């Protein structure tokens, strides 16, 4: 059984994966695997981006997002006449002919990665570039994988992939996705700590976030910065301590990451 | 799939090639463009001698066996088959040849549309207009525009100078000199500190002793630097334009424990995606204030290399006195002083200063930020001073930049950037007896006369050239200066006697051609209004009767082409039979055969072919194509190169590309500026003293009264025109009362300069465009939530960005990625004129300053200037629609934007 492994920690947001997918599928059909994708508007793989934090502690998380080729695929269950099938290698394929008019295939997907082609009246999504895997083509891997110059996306036999510690998107949907992620963004709290009397950054301050979700600790670096990373969504009491001074801040990461800017230690 | 044909293509939006792609085509149409695996063509053993390596501890970095083409190359199918491609020769509907003001309708340029004509008619017009203008005014009345690398990667078929080649056979031409774009601050400032620099003139450091080549800079940084400072350098964007291997190098640097700091008003595309990056937001074009405060900390805390400064520099005492406030001005440039100006908290300035001093720090710089702003020579010099104070050339203390990116050195390499074989027939970077800097075209057309200093060409000019006065039209004095003097070296080189040379020179001097004003513009790079400065001012100038005929050669119907009279359709690089190779900022340099990968689009021809066909009309085709076919040219190029030392022509043809072997003796070459660091006597700079000149006597002597560029860098604010200042573009003058925001107009993520704005697969990416309520995809204005709130601007709002030079429309993207007080509109979105000085396309350079860097420095200032932003309500938009119905009636396709059918009457 094949699977995708996506390592977000090395993604730099170049969109090569998204472009490669479009280059392969827009305006050209690969029957019987897929009809042509419309030139714009569908994203069989989409590099989602999430801007996080506040000046000057800002990051963007780039998340390649695609059909999860679920083991318990809701689209497969919703399809009539066998319009959606799972191949022996695990890829879930929508039959471009049998699926005509079957909007329920698209509606069934909790991940919203199936698109509707108005012109052809069919649902469409990632095929894992099955035509390349099977056919006599110059390459035999999915285009998103071939295009990625940083090996963010790998594809292969599940047994050959290092899936230890990986996650899937929305496990609560219960569909058993076959796209595994490393480095899915958690929340952060960050700030620059300074001493208002000396007008200097505070290096080596002890910073602790405490809450019901646990205790996380770090120290400020040479810029006076701390980054408490990989935090769950929760309410926190952040304590900053150095040279006998102590400051406490109430922060919540339930909604968003927190860039606290410059924090005076008094 | 047996009907698939695969070719290698070297695609990059510059003249020096990119990492190779494989282009699969079916029935003459592109199927896919993908990276290539070198091991499909060569074995590992065969490649081994050509692969460079960087070793840091136990970690090794190599380019790998798979190419990493830029994302533009991977999306190039969109460019080739763009709805914006020029399919046929086009003539403006209300223009007639002959120069009659009543029939050229000059004021309608940028307004009236085009009709399709045949190639025969187009060539007839070209021939008759060139003959008419040359006869009436002389050949120097033809201005050839486009001496430029901002184009596709082509070799034989390259544009940007084929018109000059043809005109040189017809008696001459006026050369539009490409001013030193992207390196302004180095060129006008740092050259006076550390000498001419790379390519003998760019202004970024390189030793004269290596032919001005900065070898092994990235290797030295990899091995020895601890902190890498990106001063407005967006590595993930700019460095990657020909290969994305550079993302891999950054990951390698992270792996071996480098630290990074990014000083930029914008949390740029490098800063946002690496947890190792420290972003220090700075107000635009205030970098010299920060740098002076860093110097203050270093001087007061003894954190700089005093011995090096003593032995390797002159004039430091004057800078020291200025920084400490011990000069006549008496203002200490403390962190508190700087903080008020640059918007960085005092404590962060101090932390930055100490980090840079206590860690071995390299500086990385690209074409961004303050280096392109008003008075850019000041930050250019202060950035250079910082390296000078820490021992420029010391292990790890180097400046990295695009031309200093080559890792390794091939035995047959000519420089860090030149190709291994060249059959380029463009007359680029050739001096001409009449010339105009690109920045002064508008003024030359409007006033009929301009003066300036230096050529000022971007490369191959020494620093002292900046002291020479030039003028347009050419005068006997400037003609004489352009011809120069003879020397024994020239006599030896040309194998002639001194007397013969003198006689030839005297003959030229006594027979000065007739230099008239320009009346025909011929552009092979039609994007001056959008790539260069004062775009609206340029539009005004080319819409006058002075310009009797304006022709462009171009692949896409955009920018200057919308304002011309005739458009000649040009092939893209994948349609030509060429041999491009890749020689700059690629992962592994190569020479390659790049045959046509697909059928030609429409009736397009290459710039070379157009020049050949016109040459035919004038009976001099054989002087351009030399009687050779494309294939013969390519083989000729190979035979003229040193490639034959390593591979036979037959083998090269069979493989299709070749990576020259690494020089086994390359370690003998000192990295970057190490020679100067180790041995300044034998590795002197080409400054007058041979040393770093914190104070330049040459500037003091030549421009004693220049307050804008003084002999040493200062914090220069500028002021009113009345008082003689070129600029009032800061938050400390008068104009900021009306225009309180500073605009950052750095290169875009989803364009290279102006190229690629029509790539539909990019346009739907959320950071590329903003969809307005009217369905138009506006160029984003990145604005901080605080600045948006006071202007009642909401995400997706249509916003007018304006100053006293005009108004462009943009779409609001409210973001924490930009410092309050600044807004970001990436340069290069295509123009979409509504009316004079009002544009919907969001081309930032349209409202950039009409004045250049400073009085004696006629480079452009296109970032870090004043604007105001306001939400555009429905009443205002409706008013424009009523006043300019034609502009709003043009066909618009959000996928592509404005396009061929917007401007061509079918």
What does this structure look like?
The complex is a heterodimer of chains A (266) and B (906). The mean pLDDT of chain A is 97. In chain A, a hairpin with a 5-residue loop joins strand 4 and strand 5. Chain A is built from five helices and 17 strands. Chain A has helices at residues 16-25, 74-78, 103-107, 130-134, 143-147, and strands spanning 2-7, 45-54, 57-66, 84-86, 92-94, 115-117, 122-124, 153-157, 179-182, 187-195, 200-201, 206-211, 214-219, 225-231, 235-242, 245-252, 258-264. With 906 residues, chain B is of the alpha/beta class. Among the domains of chain B are: 184-410 and 671-702, Dimethylsulfoxide Reductase, domain 2; 475-514; 735-903, Barwin-like endoglucanases. Chain B contains 33 helices and 34 strands. In chain B, helix 11 (287-301) packs antiparallel against helix 14. The radius of gyration of chain B is 26 Å and the shape is globular. Chains A and B meet through helix 1, strand 2, strand 3, helix 5 and strand 10 of A and strand 3, helix 10, strand 12, helix 15 and helix 29 of B.
Largest sheet of chain B: 8 strands, mixed
- Residues in helix, % of chain A: 10-25%
Could you say which structural class the secondary elements and strand pairing of chain B correspond to?
A: alpha/beta
In the predicted model, the low-confidence regions of chain B spanning at least 5 consecutive residues are: none
CATH class categorisation of the domain at 184-410 and 671-702 in chain B: Alpha Beta
Low-confidence spans of chain A: pLDDT under 50, at least 5 residues?
none
Shape of chain B: globular
**Order of secondary-structure elements of chain A:** EHEEHEEHEEHHEEEEEEEEEE
Alpha plus pi helix count of chain B: 33
Number of domains of chain A: 2
Overall CATH architecture of the domain at 184-410 and 671-702 in chain B? 3-Layer(aba) Sandwich
Shape of chain A: elongated
Please provide the count of β strands of chain B.
Answer: 34
Distance between the termini of chain B: 38 Å
Number of E-type strands of chain A: 17
CATH homology superfamily of the domain at 184-410 and 671-702 in chain B: Dimethylsulfoxide Reductase, domain 2
Range of strand content of chain B: 15-25%
């Amino acid at each position: 059984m094949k699977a995708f492994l996506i390592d977000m920690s090395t993604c730099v947001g170049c969109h090569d994966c998204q472009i490669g997918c479009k280059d392969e599928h827009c305006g050209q059909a690969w029957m019987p695997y897929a009809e042509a994708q419309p030139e714009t508007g569908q994203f069989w793989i989409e590099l989602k981006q999430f801007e996080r934090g506040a000046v000057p502690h800002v990051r963007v998380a780039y998340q390649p997002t695609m059909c999860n080729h679920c083991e318990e695929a809701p689209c497969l269950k919703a399809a009539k006449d066998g319009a959606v099938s799972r191949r022996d290698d695990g890829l879930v394929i929508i039959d471009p002919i049998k699926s005509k008019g079957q909007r329920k295939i698209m509606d069934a997907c909790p991940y919203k990665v199936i698109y509707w082609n108005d012109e052809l009246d069919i649902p469409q999504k990632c095929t894992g570039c099955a035509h390349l895997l099977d056919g006599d083509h110059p390459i035999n891997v999915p285009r998103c994988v071939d295009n990625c110059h940083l090996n963010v996306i790998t594809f292969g036999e599940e047994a050959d992939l290092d899936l230890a510690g990986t996650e899937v998107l929305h496990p609560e949907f219960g569909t058993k996705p076959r796209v595994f992620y490393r480095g899915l963004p958690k929340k952060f709290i960050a700030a620059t700590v300074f001493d208002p009397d000396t007008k200097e950054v505070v290096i080596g301050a002890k910073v602790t976030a405490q809450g019901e979700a646990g205790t996380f600790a770090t120290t400020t670096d040479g810029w006076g910065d701390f980054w408490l990373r990989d935090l769950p969504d929760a309410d926190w009491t952040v304590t900053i301590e150095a040279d006998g001074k102590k400051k406490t801040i109430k922060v919540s990461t339930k909604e968003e990451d927190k860039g606290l800017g410059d924090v005076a230690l008094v | 799939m047996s009907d698939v044909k695969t070719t290698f293509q070297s695609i990059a939006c510059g003249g020096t090639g990119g990492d190779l792609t494989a282009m699969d085509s079916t029935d003459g149409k592109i199927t896919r463009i993908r990276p290539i695996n070198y091991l499909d063509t060569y074995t590992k053993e065969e490649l081994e001698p050509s692969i460079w390596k960087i070793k840091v501890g136990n970690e090794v970095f190599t380019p790998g066996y798979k190419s990493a083409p830029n994302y533009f190359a991977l999306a190039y199918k969109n460019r080739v088959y763009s709805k914006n491609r020029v399919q046929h020769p086009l003539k403006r509907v209300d223009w007639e040849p002959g120069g009659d003001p009543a029939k050229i309708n000059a004021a309608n340029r940028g307004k009236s549309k085009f009709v399709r004509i045949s190639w025969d008619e187009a060539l007839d017009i070209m021939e008759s207009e060139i003959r008419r203008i040359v006869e009436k005014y002389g050949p120097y009345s033809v201005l050839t525009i486009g001496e430029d690398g901002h184009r596709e990667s082509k070799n034989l078929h390259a544009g940007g100078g084929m018109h000059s080649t043809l005109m040189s056979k017809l008696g001459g031409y006026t050369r539009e000199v490409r001013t030193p774009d992207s390196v302004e601050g180095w060129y006008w400032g740092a050259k006076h500190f550390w000498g001419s620099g790379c390519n003998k003139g760019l202004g970024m450091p390189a030793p004269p002793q290596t032919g001005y080549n900065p070898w092994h800079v990235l290797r030295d940084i990899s091995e020895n630097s601890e902190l890498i400072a990106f001063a407005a350098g967006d590595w993930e964007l700019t460095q990657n334009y020909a290969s994305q291997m550079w993302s891999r190098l950054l990951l390698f640097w992270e792996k071996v424990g480098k630290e990074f700091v990014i000083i930029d008003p914008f949390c740029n595309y490098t800063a946002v995606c690496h947890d190792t990056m420290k972003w220090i937001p700075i107000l635009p074009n205030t970098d010299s204030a920060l740098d002076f405060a860093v110097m203050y900390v270093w001087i007061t805390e003894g954190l700089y290399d005093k011995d090096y400064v003593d032995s390797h520099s002159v004039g430091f005492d004057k800078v020291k006195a200025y920084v400490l406030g011990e000069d006549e001005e008496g203002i200490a440039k403390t962190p508190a002083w700087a903080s008020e100006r640059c918007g960085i908290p005092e404590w962060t300035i101090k932390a930055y200063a100490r980090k840079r001093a206590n860690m071995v720090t390299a500086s990385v710089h690209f074409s961004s930020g303050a280096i392109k702003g008003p008075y850019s020579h000041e930050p250019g010099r202060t950035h250079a001073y910082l390296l000078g104070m820490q021992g420029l050339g010391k292990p790890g203390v180097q400046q990295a930049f695009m031309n200093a990116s080559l890792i390794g050195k091939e035995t047959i390499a000519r420089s860090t950037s030149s190709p291994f074989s060249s059959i380029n027939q463009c007359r680029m970077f050739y001096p001409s007896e009449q010339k105009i800097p690109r920045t002064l075209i508008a003024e030359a057309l409007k006033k009929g006369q301009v003066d300036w200093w230096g050529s000022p060409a971007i490369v191959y000019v020494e620093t002292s050239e900046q002291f020479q006065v030039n003028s347009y039209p050419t005068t006997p004095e400037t003609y004489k200066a352009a011809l120069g003097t003879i020397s024994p070296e020239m006599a030896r080189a040309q194998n002639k006697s001194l007397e013969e040379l003198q006689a030839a020179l005297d003959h030229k001097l006594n027979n000065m051609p007739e230099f008239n004003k320009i009346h025909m513009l011929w552009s092979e790079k039609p994007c001056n209004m959008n790539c260069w400065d004062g775009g609206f001012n340029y539009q005004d100038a080319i819409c006058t009767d002075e310009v009797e005929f304006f022709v462009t050669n171009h692949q896409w119907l955009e920018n200057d082409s919308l304002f011309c009279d005739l458009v000649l359709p040009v092939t893209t690089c994948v349609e030509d039979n060429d041999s491009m190779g890749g020689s700059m900022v690629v992962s592994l340099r190569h020479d390659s055969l790049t045959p046509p990968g697909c059928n030609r689009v429409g009736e397009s021809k290459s710039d070379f072919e157009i020049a050949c066909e016109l040459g035919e009309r004038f009976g001099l085709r054989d002087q351009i194509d030399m009687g050779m076919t494309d294939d013969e040219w390519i083989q000729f190029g190979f035979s003229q190169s040193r490639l034959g030392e390593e591979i036979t022509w037959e083998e090269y043809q069979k493989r299709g590309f070749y990576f020259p072997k690494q020089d086994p003796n390359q370690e003998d070459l000192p990295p970057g500026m190490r020679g100067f660091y180790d041995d300044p006597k034998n590795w002197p700079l080409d400054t007058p003293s041979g040393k770093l000149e914190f104070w330049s006597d040459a500037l003091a002597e030549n421009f004693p009264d220049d307050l804008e560029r003084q002999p040493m860098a200062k914090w220069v604010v500028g002021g009113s025109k009345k008082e003689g200042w070129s600029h009032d573009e800061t938050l400390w003058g008068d104009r900021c009362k009306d225009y309180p925001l500073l605009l950052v107009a750095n290169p875009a993520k989803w364009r290279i300069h102006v190229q690629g704005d029509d790539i539909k697969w990019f346009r739907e990416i959320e950071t590329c465009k903003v969809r307005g309520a009217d369905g138009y995809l506006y160029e984003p204005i990145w604005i901080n939530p605080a600045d948006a709130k006071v202007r009642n601007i909401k995400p997706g709002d249509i916003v007018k960005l304006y100053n006293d030079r005009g108004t462009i429309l943009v779409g609001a993207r409210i973001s924490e990625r930009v410092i309050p007080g600044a807004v970001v509109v990436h340069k290069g979105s295509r123009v979409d004129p509504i009316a004079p000085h009002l544009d919907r396309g969001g081309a930032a350079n349209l409202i950039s300053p009409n004045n250049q860097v400073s009085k004696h420095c006629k480079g452009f200032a296109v970032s870090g200037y004043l604007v105001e932003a306001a939400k555009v309500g429905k009443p205002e938009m409706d008013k424009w629609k009523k006043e300019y119905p034609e502009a709003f009636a043009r066909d618009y396709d959000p996928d592509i934007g404005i396009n061929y059918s917007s401007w061509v009457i079918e």
